[in-house]
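Course assignment 3, question 2. Fill in each field.
Student: A.L.
Task: Predict the tertiary structure for the chain below.
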Amino acid sequence: MTGAEPFIAQAISGIAVPVFQTLWGQGGKVLGLFGKTLDKKAKQAIFNASRQYAQNYTERHGILKVLGMREPVSLESVYTTVQFLDDAAIRSFESVETLETVYREAKQRSFQSKDCPKQAGITVANQKQYLMVLGSPGAGKSTFLRRMGLEALKGKKGQFKHARIPVLIELNTFNQGDVDIEHKIAEEFRICGFPAHQEFTAKALEQGKLLILLDGLDEVPTERMNQVIQHIQNFVDLHDKNRFIASCRVAAYRHNFRRFTDVAMAEFDDDQIKNFISNWFGREPQTGQECWQKLNYKDNKAAKELTQTPLLLTLVCLLYQRSRKFPTNRATLYERALRVLLEEWAAEKGVFKDDVYKGLDTKRKEMMLSEIAHDAFQADHLFLPRREITDQIEELLAEMLPDAVHTILQQRLFASLGQTHQDSSSVQRIQFWEVQSIQMS
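Answer field:
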């Protein structure tokens, strides 16, 4: 039991059939797949599979339970309409130097000026056949993709104006093994009992009946990134009648998806923050109003600064829900936010899930971040290149967990050599490589 069964039941009624009816064609044929009018039994089988598909999607992608929430909530019950930034705003993220300049010029704890042009996310999704959604961690990229899928499932009753079956693929599932998007799609239909699921998938792709949601390009390992990108490019070129929405962190994006329009998640403005809080405390409207009012007190300025992304706004709501107040000390508030990000959000995303990181507890992570922040403060740097941070982390890890660093270096070398196991020749290469590294340092 997830606690969200009533929502699922309500969502499924009226969803299961509408979007799939687009595939039934004239005379009850399904994508022309069976070449003849379907009998009553076949229609019932397809209806049951459609219903199961909608239920599976809603259960897997329509429920939120993050940051220590005691009970799951439906995505739609707390979802706040997002906005996208234009091309000029995206360019401000292209280098550390540009980002720092923009941040300093804003003269506030924000990456965006208050008059930065924005567009409603759903409007852009309806306009663009190929959409790349960029944003910082916790900005709501994955939530947006999942919401678009829910809207598509509603057919004409939803806000997504194209009759497409949504299929969400988490790209971190391509961290190993073959990269095969069509197989992943077919599996989604197979587990729901679609007749001839592979043929069904091929025909749906051929006729452009799918909304393919590719979530988390940044979660693909660096050594496999080029392979995954090339496969996505080829897949999109081959099946260009379908619609695609992908997501990636800004810092990890390479701007090399030819067909895709790049947009960036805009920070929440006051209207969105207020709406999110109202949705969050939906069953306690008075509490929601009090939360919003207190958030705007001068003493709570630090808490208000954390509300510009859905992830940290969720944290703010949880803090208020538990104590009916916000820590007025900025350091205390930021400490709590950092602890949540290092523990609960990292666990949710699978960060540090390898055995090699077991010794890297929260205290050590905080110590590393403190060292990096201290050095950056001394140098008057607000942002640092990834390579520089990586080098600092390796140096600090070498002091804290020398055995872990040795294992990480081995894993990195295996990946570059395409090795899947440690044979004697690869161990010799590691030893040689490590000696060369020491000599060059």
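Instructor remarks: Residues 27 and 161 are 24 Å apart (CA to CA). The chain has three domains: 81-265, 273-349, 357-440.
Grade: pending
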